[in-house]
C-alpha cells in the first residue's frame, strides 16, 4: 500500500493499526525512501580517457558549434560572447566551464506533498515511471494506442509503488484527448492521482506555463514560494546530431528563469544520430547537453540542471534501436565519469528493446538498471513499465520492474554488508555448532523478519507448489497484481481549496482553448 | 557453430569457406575466448571490514574448529600441528596463512583439445554449464527426472556454445543409468561430445580415479604428462555448518596429489545452514573453504585450488532458498574481497529460484551474473541452464543465459570503451554535421559489422514485425534454437586410438562392476 494510505490508517491505528492492515494490502512493499548508492562507480575510462572525451566534447562545441533553432537563445549566447553564425553557436571551453561552475551538484525537488521530496545528485538515486510511449500493451488487450483511461491506470501504479519517486512524462500519450487541452487533463490527473514530483513537457510556451501554474496551485503556493525552490522539472532532448529545437529551448529557459530544474538528455543512437563508436557517441551527447546547460547557467546562474544520457546503439542489420546492450552499459558508465567531472547530477534510464514482458525484457532492463547503479546515475527514467524501445508502456512490466527496483533499493542498504559483531555472528556460529540449524537460534529469531529482501511478484516456491497453484508465469502474476492494485487504489488527499483552484484553472484554460497545436 | 566445426570446415574452404558457411549456421555466435574482466571489483567492505571478516573466519577455525569426517585428513592435520579432538580440527591463523602462501593465484587447465584451455584466476572469467540438477524441464515435456538422453542433449549445448568454457558437473543426473557405472557412461559422453575441460565428482575413490584415468586416456597422455599440469578438476562442498564429509575430502586429496585443481564451495544459506546476517554467513563459508585448502596445501604445497561461494539467503516465510537476491549479490562481492585478500582464484554462480525461463528467472540470473562480474569471479558455475534453485536444468534457459553470457563477454572487451582518435570520431562528427545521419558515412561503413554486440535469441524488431512473425516470446524462440542446435550438432573429433583406449577402459570397468554404491 502507498505511504499515503499508511499515514491515513496510522492516524486511526498507530503502529499496531498499520501492522494489522499489512495482511490486507495487495502487496507488502518497501517503504518510501530515496536510495543512497554506496558503491564506487564502475569507471571504464582512466584519467586520460576522461580528458580525451572531454576535449572532444569541447572541440565539438568550439570548432563545430551547435544549431540553436531558437532566436532568443542565440541572441543570449551572442551577448555572452559565443561565436554566432545564423543558428550556429560556437562556445569555447572557458565559457562552458565557467557556466558549469555555477550549476549546483545537487538539488531537491519538493512536490505538493513535502514527504515526497526527492534529492537529485550526490549518491542519491531516484526512479521515474515510464514516460512518453504512444502505445500501451497488456496481456489481456494486447497492443493499442494510448488513451486517457490507460494514462490514469499508469498514474495509479506510479503513485502506488513507493519505489517510484517521480511522476515523469506521460506513461502513455492519451490520443483521445485533443492536444490543445491534453496537458491540462493529464496534469490534473497527475496532480490529483499522485502527490509525487511532476514534470512538464517543453512543447510550447503555453503548456509549460500552464503546468508550472497547475503545480503551484496544487501545492497551494504563492508565486514567490513556487519560484523559491524546485517544485517540478522538465526534460529536454536535443535533435541529434548537433541541434536544439525551438520549443525545447524555450521551455528550458522558462523553467530555469523560475528556478525549476532542467534535465538535458540528447538521444544519440550510435550508428544513426551519432558515431558508431561509443566514445564518439558519448562525446557528441555531452557536447549537446553542455551547450544547453551553458545557456541556462548564463541566463540564471546556479539554476538546477542535470545531464541525461540516452546513448545506445542500433542493430546494424536492421537499423532498429537496441537497449540494455553491453555498448549501452559502457556508454552510460563513461557518461557517468564525465558528468562527475563536470560536477552535475546525472540521468539515465531503464530500457529494453523487447516487445513483451518476457525473459529478454528483463535481461535488457536489468542490464540498463545495473548500468544506472554502476554509473552513479541520480535519476533513472523509464525505471518501470517500458517495452519496445519506448513505444509501449506495459502495466505487467511496470510491476515486474518495481521488483527489480526494490531489489536495487535493498542492495543499496548498508545492512546487506555490515560487519558489526552482531553481523559477524561469531557467538551464533559457536552456539549452533557443526551440523546444527540456524532457523531456531536467537540470533536468527531477533532478525528474521527484516534480514532479507521480501519479494512481491517473484515466486520462490518449489516447482510442485508453484504448479499446484496454477503454474503462473511472472508476466501473468504481474497482470493479476496490477489489476488488484487498481481495484483497491485510493488517491492521496489534496486540501479542498487547492483542488478547487486547480479545477477552476483547468476549466478556464479549456474555455480559452488550451494551447496552440501548430508549433 | 562451434569452433571445432569452423576448424574442420576451414581446412576445406579457408577464410572464404568459413564466411560462406556463416549463413547456414544455426546461430552466429561469438568466437571462443576467455573473457578478461577490466572492471575494478565492487567492494562493499572497507579495509577494516575485510579484516573483521577475516578475523572472524580465523576465530572460527582456531576456536571452534571444523569437523573433518575423514580420518586420513584428520591424521595429516594432526601431524601438521593442528589441534585435533576426535573429528574436530582447530587450526590457527599462522598455519592457515602459511598454507595459503603456497597456493597459486592463477592456474591453467588444459583439456584434450589444447585450444580449449582455460585460465582460472587473475582477471580471467570462465563460464561453466549448469551442474547437478536432478530434473530437466523444457517447454514441450515439462518437468521430469533427468535421464541419459537429456544428459547428452545438455552436453551438446555445452560444446556448441563458445561462451561455455567448461563441461562441469552433470547437467542432469541420469537416473536411468545405474549409479555404479553412471560416472563411466557420463564421462565417456562428456569426453567425446565435448573437447572442453571436464570435472570429477568427489563421490568415492573409484569414481575419482576412473575419471582421472578417462581424462588421461581421452587426451592420449602418459601418467607423467597428466600429473604435470591441470587437466581436469573437482569441486567439493562442505556440509555447512562446520563440517567436511568423507568422500569430498577423499576426492580432493586424490586430485591435489596429482596436481589437479580443487574448488572448495561451502553451501551456506543465511538463516538455514549459516547466520541470518550476510557477513556472518560469508565468514563461516570462508572458514570452511580455508580449512580444506589448508589441508590440500599441506599435502601438496602449490597445488591449484580456488574458493567458491554459494552464500545466499532463504525466504524467511517459507524457508525456501532464494537466489540472485540483493543479499546474494553483496555476499558474493564480500567473498570476492576476501578471496583477493587470500590471493586465490574465486568461483561463484549464475543462479535463480524461478521455476520456468520467464522474467523472474532472467532478473535473478542477471543479478547473480553481474555479481560475478562485480566480485571479480574467475569461474562462474551454472552460468547457463539453471532453474528452480538448481533442481531443474532447462535447455531454453541454457540458450537464453548464453545470450547474457555473450553480452558479458562483449562488455569485457575494451573496444566498448576505447578512446582513440578513431573512437572519439571527431572527424566523422564534423563530416556528418548537424541533422545528418551516420549510417552512410565512411567511419560507420568501416566498422558497422563489428561495432556492436549481435544477439542470437533477442528479438530487436518492432512489435508489428515481431507479431507478423508469430509473436514468439523469448522462451519459445530459445526452444526452437535449442532443437536446431541439437539437430545439426557434430561432435568434435577425437583421435581413433584415444577413442579406442577410452572405450576399452569403460568396458573393462563396467565388467568389473564399476564403483561401489554403498558409500
Automatic annotation (TrEMBL), chains A, B:
Q: What would be an example GO MF term here?
A: methyltransferase activity
Q: Which domain of life is it from?
A: Bacteria
Say yes or no: keyword Nucleotide-binding present.
Answer: no
Q: What is its EC number?
A: 2.1.1.-
Region of interest (Disordered), residue spans: 1-48
Q: Name one GO biological process term.
A: methanogenesis
Q: Which Pfam families match?
A: MTTB
* Alphabetized UniProt keyword annotations: Methyltransferase, Transferase
Q: Which InterPro entries match?
A: MttB-like_sf, MTTB_MeTrfase
How would you classify this enzyme at the top EC level?
transferase
> Where is coiled-coil annotated?
none
Please report which protein family the annotation says this sequence is part of. Belongs to the trimethylamine methyltransferase family.
What's the protein name? Methyltransferase
Give the organism, scientific name: Gemmobacter fulvus
Amino acid at each position: 500500500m502507498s505511504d499515503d494510505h499508511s499515514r491515513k490508517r496510522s492516524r486511526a491505528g498507530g503502529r499496531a493499526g498499520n501492522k494489522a492492515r499489512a495482511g490486507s494490502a495487495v502487496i507488502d512493499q518497501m517503504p518510501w525512501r530515496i536510495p543512497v548508492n554506496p558503491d564506487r562507480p564502475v569507471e571504464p575510462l582512466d584519467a586520460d580517457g576522461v580528458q580525451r572525451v572531454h576535449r572532444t566534447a569541447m572541440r565539438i562545441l568550439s570548432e563545430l558549434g551547435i544549431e540553436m533553432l531558437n532566436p532568443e537563445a542565440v541572441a543570449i549566447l551572442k551577448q555572452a560572447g559565443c561565436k554566432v553564425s545564423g543558428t550556429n553557436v560556437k562556445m569555447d571551453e572557458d565559457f562552458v566551464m565557467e557556466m558549469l561552475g555555477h550549476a549546483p551538484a545537487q538539488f531537491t525537488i519538493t512536490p505538493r506533498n513535502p514527504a515526497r521530496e526527492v534529492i537529485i545528485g550526490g549518491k542519491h538515486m531516484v526512479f521515474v515511471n515510464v514516460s512518453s510511449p504512444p502505445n500501451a500493451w497488456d496481456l489481456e488487450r494486447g497492443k493499442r494506442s494510448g488513451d486517457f483511461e490507460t494514462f490514469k491506470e499508469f498514474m495509479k501504479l506510479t503513485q502506488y509503488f513507493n519505489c517510484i519517486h517521480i511522476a515523469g512524462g506521460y506513461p502513455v500519450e492519451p490520443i483521445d484527448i485533443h492536444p490543445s487541452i491534453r496537458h491540462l487533463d493529464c496534469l490534473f490527473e497527475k496532480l490529483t492521482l499522485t502527490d509525487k514530483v511532476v514534470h512538464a513537457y517543453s512543447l510550447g510556451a503555453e503548456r509549460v506555463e500552464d503546468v508550472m501554474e497547475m503545480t503551484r496551485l496544487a501545492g497551494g503556493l504563492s508565486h514567490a514560494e513556487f519560484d523559491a525552490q524546485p517544485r517540478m522539472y522538465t526534460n529536454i532532448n536535443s535533435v541529434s546530431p548537433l541541434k536544439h529545437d525551438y520549443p525545447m529551448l524555450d521551455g528550458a529557459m522558462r523553467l530555469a528563469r523560475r528556478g525549476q530544474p532542467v534535465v538535458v538528455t540528447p538521444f544519440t543512437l550510435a550508428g544513426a544520430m551519432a558515431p558508431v563508436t561509443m566514445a564518439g557517441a558519448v562525446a557528441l551527447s555531452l557536447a549537446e547537453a553542455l551547450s544547453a546547460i551553458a545557456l541556462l547557467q548564463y541566463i540564471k546562474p546556479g539554476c538546477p540542471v542535470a545531464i541525461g544520457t540516452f546513448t545506445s546503439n542500433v542493430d546494424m542489420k536492421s537499423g532498429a534501436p537496441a537497449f540494455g546492450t553491453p555498448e549501452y552499459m559502457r556508454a552510460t558508465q563513461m557518461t557517468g565519469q564525465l558528468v562527475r567531472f563536470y560536477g552535475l547530477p546525472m540521468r539515465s534510464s531503464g530500457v529494453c528493446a523487447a516487445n513483451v514482458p518476457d525473459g529478454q525484457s528483463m535481461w535488457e532492463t536489468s542490464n540498463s538498471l545495473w548500468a544506472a547503479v554502476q554509473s552513479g546515475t541520480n535519476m533513472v527514467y523509464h525505471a518501470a513499465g517500458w517495452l519496445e524501445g519506448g513505444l509501449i508502456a506495459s502495466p505487467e512490466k511496470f510491476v515486474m520492474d518495481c521488483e527489480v527496483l526494490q531489489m536495487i533499493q535493498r542492495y543499496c542498504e548498508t545492512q546487506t554488508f555490515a560487519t558489526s559483531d552482531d553481523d559477524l555472528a561469531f557467538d551464533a556460529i559457536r552456539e549452533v555448532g557443526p551440523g546444527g540449524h540456524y532457523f531456531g537460534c536467537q540470533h536468527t529469531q531477533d532478525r528474521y523478519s527484516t534480514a532479507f529482501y521480501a519479494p512481491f511478484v517473484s515466486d520462490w516456491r518449489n516447482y510442485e507448489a508453484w504448479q499446484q497453484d496454477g503454474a503462473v508465469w511472472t508476466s501473468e502474476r504481474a497482470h493479476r497484481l496490477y489489476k488488484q492494485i487498481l481495484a483497491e487504489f485510493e488517491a492521496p488527499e489534496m486540501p479542498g481549496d487547492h483542488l478547487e483552484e486547480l479545477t477552476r484553472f483547468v476549466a478556464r484554460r479549456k474555455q480559452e482553448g488550451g494551447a496552440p497545436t501548430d508549433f
